[in-house]
Amino acid sequence: MxxxxxxxxxxxxxTVINEFTAKxxxxxxxxxxxxxILCELKKTVKEAETVKEEKDSPSVSIADKYSLSIQEAAExxxxxxxxxxSIISEHYNEPFILEIGSHQRIKRRLFEEFLxxxxxV
Length: 121
Fold this sequence. Notes:
Layout: E1 3-11, E2 14-22, H1 30-56, E3 67-68, H2 70-77, H3 81-90, E4 97-100, E5 103-107, H4 108-117
Antiparallel strand pairs: 1-2, 3-5, 4-5
C-alpha cells in the first residue's frame, strides 16, 4: 500500500495540496533478528526472576510453621491484617502472641484454639 502524505501550505489565501506517494523502505534484515533476540532476552529474564522467587520462598509450608507473621496468618486464616493486629492489641497477654524484638508473631496452634472458642472475630 503506497504511503500518501499531504503537504499543505497557505499562500495568499489559497491552500495548495501536494500529494506524493512513496514505497515504504525495505526493513533491514537485522531488525527481525534483533527483535527475536530481544524477545528471547525478555523470556530469559522472566525465567530467572521465577527461579529467584522459588529460591526466596520458604521451604516450610505455612501449615507446618510454629509461628506466623501477620501477613502469613492473614493469608492462612482468611482474616485481614488490620483485624489481626486489632485482635493482638485486644488480647495482648494471650499465649498465642509471640514477640520477637519489635515484631509480633502468632503461634499457629494456640491461635487456632483461640479461634475455636471464639464466636465472632
